[in-house]
Amino acid sequence: MGMTMSEKILAKASGQPDLKAGDIAWVKVDIAMMHDLLGPWLVDGAFNRLGGQLFDKEKVVVVSDHCTPPATVQQADILKFTRDWARKQDLSYYYEFEGPCHQVIAERGHVRPGRLILGTDSHTCMAGGLGAFATGIGSTEMVGVLLTGETWLKVPETIKVVWDGKIQHGVFSKDLVLKTIKDLGHAGATYQSLEFSGSSIKDLSIDERFVLSNMAVEAGAKTGLIEPDEKVVEFLRSKGVTDEVDMISSDSDASYIRTLHYNASELEPQVACPHEVDNVHPVSAVEGKAVDQVYLGSCTNGRLSDLRIAAQILKGKKISKNIRCLVVPASQHIWMQANREGILDILTEAGCIINMPSCGACGGFTSGVIGAGEVVMSSSNRNFRGRMGSTNGEVYLGSPATVAATAIEGKIADPRKYLLQGVR
Ligand SMILES: CC(C)[C@H](C(=O)O)[C@@H](O)C(=O)O
Ligand code: SF4
């Protein structure tokens, strides 16, 4: 019987060649990632009681992103603790104020196909977009990983999600993944892997593939994998990775628990309505809903191609007077490139506010929280009650194009009327 990508990566990580779904694997971890909020300040006590020696300081990556820049004294304390800890442990890789961890570890070359990556954040699965088995773990579990470099995992079954056909004008990978989550349900893939494949997925840029993998956890999935191809190799080379790339793929006779098959040419822009990510409707069903804030950013959809789309829609226009529009590039690297391309000027002239790369507004931690009764159209991945601030606020999720179109109208809007033909 053939193997899925998840089975192969965990087989390699455990040294047990015949591993299959359902087996318990004792695995060696390639990268252990922590961020400020669920990182050093939580693990330090137990870590020290158990010896306080890192298994490998080259494989532990810490990113301060949730508390940046701090909005409260507690956040400032956490940030200081994280920075001091990184220094004390003499970490080779500590990043601060660079952007959300998932984007930063991908850009900095830590994510590679075939690697096993564990992080103290649920969206660690984003690394699956480059073909890594990546998943979130709790801080307590991370203590063991930090000390030994090992842990155990149950090998997940895999759901194959196939998208074939031409993605239509105004439709983006965000729309594909929202539709997938709607059908799976927010707990429909619990402890299973998603594997995205098909001709529409092959056509996607790396930026757009990350959106699919990032949101796998919103269906409860352990991870969301995409087979690496030449685009992945090109991405890694552009980040300075010179090692041979593990072109891992599933075997043609691999066994799947379920297969979903879609025709992308039939899909229109989608919106997830409050307060669950699977509460998804076509944009036509929610068009006209008034908003107070628009948020274009996060590790889900704050990448360069997202900012380019928004700039194309907002160029020469003004955002609605009734709203504020926050734009948060997903990394400093993206910020600088967007600046060079004149994108930040276009967005600022349209009336947007450009915030520094951070998790801040996405999770309601720092700059950009919402008040009671406020409604947000967001390009991020979660719309749970209280997600961006007040528990009496509402968050809608959509593609960057839907977000930018909504900024113009001050009401949820269909992006197809604003996007130039041929841009998608
Ligand atoms: C703060 C952290 C627990 C959280 C996560 O794990 O995903 C955050 O990054 C999020 O997106 O909700
Ligand atoms: S989803 Fe938001 S809060 Fe979570 S890591 Fe990404 S940007 Fe940060």
Automatic annotation (TrEMBL):
Q: Which residues form the Aconitase/3-isopropylmalate dehydratase large subunit alpha/beta/alpha domain?
A: 30-410
UniProt keyword terms in alphabetical order: 4Fe-4S, Amino-acid biosynthesis, Branched-chain amino acid biosynthesis, Iron, Iron-sulfur, Leucine biosynthesis, Lyase, Metal-binding
Enzymatic class = lyase
Question: Pathway of this protein?
Answer: Amino-acid biosynthesis; L-leucine biosynthesis; L-leucine from 3-methyl-2-oxobutanoate: step 2/4
Q: Which Pfam families match?
A: Aconitase (PF00330)
Instruction: Describe the task this protein carries out.
Output: Catalyzes the isomerization between 2-isopropylmalate and 3-isopropylmalate, via the formation of 2-isopropylmaleate.
How is the quaternary structure described? Heterodimer of LeuC and LeuD.
Q: What name goes with this protein?
A: 3-isopropylmalate dehydratase large subunit
Give me the gene this protein comes from. leuC
